[in-house]
DNA sequence: GGAACCCTACTCGGATACGGCGTGTCCGAGTGGCTTCGG
DNA sequence: CCGAAGCCACTCGGACACGCCGTATCCGAGTAGGGTTCC
């Protein structure tokens, strides 16, 4: 019951893409070196984001990624689901149907009450993630990270991207 | 990012233990046959519940499991955490520390803002699970499952347990 | 008839095997920008 | 001097290897109750 580390990487990549000037892209290479993670594997996470329509890509030299929408329109849930998938955490095998005392054809329709509780918790998790956008995160970062570190990071990335 | 199927089994086992008369125990064998799951493996889930103090055991013949507390005092979260563990679903590797522009010793204290959002969602998930008790589940079952099926299941289990 | 004994059924923990998936790497196809070469 | 061809860097997708963990099974130690046997 762990989220994959690609989720963390994708979130950090989206975070640095928030303050990307128009017309610029961040390459996988720059992002991987900036975060200290393997380039080829990080590429998988970015491809997931691309498949989900959260980021745009440009092929070729000076290519790379940038956000496809405004930071305020991208929630944590969007990113987590892009990487992790949209299926529920709890998989109901409907084992109540194995009850030897259950008449045939009974309990086959309608969700299992136990599954319903688990799915409600899943919903709460998703709601919480959906309530925070990349814009909110940017604000939080601007408040907690010294301005010079932010600016230097920005320049460091732009130096290495098209 | 899936909960193990043992979670589902443990929840169903706890559900049937709710209406167990005082002084009686349900054996692993009975529980496994009732739910149609492998006995030896279900035993692992029950052992997890036992380790967490949610159920009591009696060794020997006519032995088995019963709830250690009243159904109202056992939440879904208790059961899920007993089987799945108590650690968060999001593991923060603190990759922001790899930022080449970050001055040494900076950002090392205080949680990563991204991790904080993920942990808040985790908290929401846990709160949702903690808000439903086995007592609530029993009520829901009594409302949705026909009384004769409940009674017959009860007797079926008691016939096979001490 | 009562007590001691054995047998059985169960819990509990460890050991083991297998498969799937997360993790990580490598490679080839496609594409766009830059450099270089030729007219 | 200018256009075209080649080169390079990057994206994207697939293939592959490795290791961990969830799944599943088996076995032995310990224990309590019931049946059996012996006094």
From TrEMBL, chains A, B:
Protein name in the entry: RrF2 family transcriptional regulator
Extent of the signal sequence: none
InterPro entries per record: TR_Rrf2-type_CS (IPR030489), Tscrpt_reg_Rrf2 (IPR000944), WH-like_DNA-bd_sf (IPR036388), WH_DNA-bd_sf (IPR036390)
NCBIfam families: rrf2_super (TIGR00738)
Domain of life the protein comes from: Bacteria
Pfam families: Rrf2 (PF02082)
């Amino acid at each position: 019951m762990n989220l994959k580390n690609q989720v963390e990487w994708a979130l950090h990549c989206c975070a640095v893409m928030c303050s990307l000037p128009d017309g610029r892209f961040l390459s996988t290479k720059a992002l991987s070196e900036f975060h200290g993670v393997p380039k080829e594997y990080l590429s998988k996470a970015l491809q997931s984001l691309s498949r989900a329509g959260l980021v745009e890509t440009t092929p070729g030299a000076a290519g790379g990624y940038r956000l496809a929408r405004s930071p305020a329109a991208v929630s944590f849930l969007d990113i987590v689901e892009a990487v992790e998938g949209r299926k529920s955490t709890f998989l109901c095998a409907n084992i109540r149907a194995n009850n030897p005392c259950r008449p045939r054809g009974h309990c086959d329709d309608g969700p299992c009450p136990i599954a319903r509780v688990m799915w409600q918790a899943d919903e709460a998790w998703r709601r919480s993630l959906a309530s925070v956008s990349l814009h909110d995160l940017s604000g939080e970062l601007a408040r907690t990270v010294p301005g010079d570190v932010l600016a230097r990071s920005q320049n460091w990335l732009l130096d290495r991207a098209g």
